């Protein structure tokens, strides 16, 4: 319990130190552009690939499990759309990104800590937390809606391709009708809001574990693992809270 409270206090103080007005805006925007490309754009390919295959699998599995003649076939498209919009493209995709982005952030900052680069910044009077962490947090939060939109689009595209290629008892016309059936545009904004919160969780927790690494290369690896695990747990907890607040 004491260890948990100690970590929470350290995390809060670090975020207070990191989320402050930068001393040099030109340097901040230069770092921000680098982080958007490194954390966001470089993650685009894995988001697209996973979303296409998961959307295809969801559509196929639903079509195989709907065998009753009383259930209309457009239910397949409707259910696929709801799963992708409500949960997959935000929560599940961010859990995957926690492994890729979170470990990247934790290992990068952790390596700078064990090689004493952060100590050198502090000696020169640089706010190392603000310089290193704020661009990563802001960059991921700015670009995460783009990743979510791409995930939604390619996931639904995968479901449509399943209706043409593989799904038994499902026609493209019925699937497309299900995609349009009782469409609620709020679900898109709901997923984007959730993803922005998750982006802050991933980047801030990974930065915390990397910033407070002690030891050598082995400890950097442990910090990366701990960052991914803790980010995943906090994303799931936030998912429950946000769903209750925004949909009930």
Furnish the topology, listing elements before pairings:
Elements: H1 2-18, H2 25-40, H3 44-65, H4 74-114, H5 117-123, H6 128-165, H7 172-180, H8 186-211, H9 217-247
Helix pairs in contact: 1-6, 2-6, 3-4, 3-6, 4-6, 4-7, 4-8, 4-9, 6-7, 6-8, 8-9
- Spans of at least 5 consecutive residues whose pLDDT stays below 50 are none
Helix share, percent: over 70%
Beta percentage is under 5%
Main sheet makeup: none
Number of domains: 1
Number of H/I helices: 9
Would you count the extended β strands for me? 0
Question: How would you describe this structure in keywords?
Answer:
single chain, 248 residues, mainly alpha, 0% strand
Structural account:
The chain has 248 residues and is mostly helical. It has one domain. Helices cover 83% and strands 0% of the residues. The chain is built from 9 helices and no strands. It starts with a helix and ends with a helix. The mean pLDDT is 89.
Summarize the structure.
The chain has helices at residues 2-18, 25-40, 44-65, 74-114, 117-123, 128-165, 172-180, 186-211, 217-247.
């Amino acid at each position: 319990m004491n260890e948990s409270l100690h970590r929470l206090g350290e995390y809060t103080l670090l975020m207070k130190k990191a989320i402050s007005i930068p001393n040099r805006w030109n340097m901040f925007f230069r770092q921000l552009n680098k982080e958007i490309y490194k954390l966001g754009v470089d993650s685009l390919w894995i988001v697209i690939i996973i979303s296409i295959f998961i959307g295809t699998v969801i559509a196929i599995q639903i079509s195989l499990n709907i065998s009753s003649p009383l259930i209309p076939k457009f239910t397949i498209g409707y259910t696929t759309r709801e799963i992708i919009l409500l949960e997959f493209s935000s929560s599940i995709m961010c859990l995957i990104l926690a492994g890729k982005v979170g470990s990247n952030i934790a290992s990068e900052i952790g390596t700078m800590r064990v090689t004493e680069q952060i100590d050198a910044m502090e000696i020169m009077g640089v706010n190392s937390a603000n310089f290193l962490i704020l661009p990563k947090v802001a960059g991921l939060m700015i670009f995460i809606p783009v990743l979510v939109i791409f995930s939604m689009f390619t996931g639904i595209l995968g479901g449509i391709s399943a209706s043409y290629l593989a799904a038994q008892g499902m026609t493209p016309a019925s699937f497309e009708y299900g995609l349009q059936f009782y469409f609620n545009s709020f679900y898109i904004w709901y997923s984007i809001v959730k993803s922005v919160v998750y982006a802050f969780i991933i980047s801030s927790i990974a930065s915390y574990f990397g910033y407070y690494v002690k030891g050598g290369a082995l400890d950097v690896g442990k910090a990366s693992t701990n960052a991914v695990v803790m980010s995943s747990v906090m994303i799931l907890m936030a998912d429950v809270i946000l769903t209750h607040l925004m949909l009930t």
